[in-house]
User: Fold Transcriptional regulator MraZ from Dyella japonica A8.
Amino acid sequence: MFQGETAITVDDKGRLAIPTAYRELVADACANRLVITYNPFESGCLWLFPYAEWEKVRDQVNGLSKVKAAHRDMQMKLVGAAAVVEPDSAVRILLPASQRATTGIEKKAVLLGMGNKFELWSEQAHLAKIRQTIGEDEITDDMAELQL
Assistant:
């Protein structure tokens, strides 16, 4: 569904415009309702889900046992921090200030289409991550089978 990398500008009020290439897809996928939450695996990154996709993720995460600390951490970062947003008349969404501050997302950011969701990276975190290479010792069996 979503793919590609787009440089994004966040305005002084914390709003970003949904790129033109994604506007129709977002409208069709979720009637313009998105959910923004933390990426629990990478600092400097937020996840943006179409609402229907989010409901599946939310239910899976909430279904985890509350006994394990890692489960509670994931529930806090994903479900507890989730915010439903809808584009305004200028097709902009408002990023929660706490999420911007925690991830370091400021004026310049990078939006990645990742299939069922978007990732919104701070420019610095994205540059650091994209410059990292995958070493031979990190290649999994599944990766080794890819025909790249």
User: Anything to note?
Assistant: The domain at 2-134 is CATH 3.40.1550.20 (Chemotaxis protein chec). The mean pLDDT is 95. The radius of gyration is 16 Å.
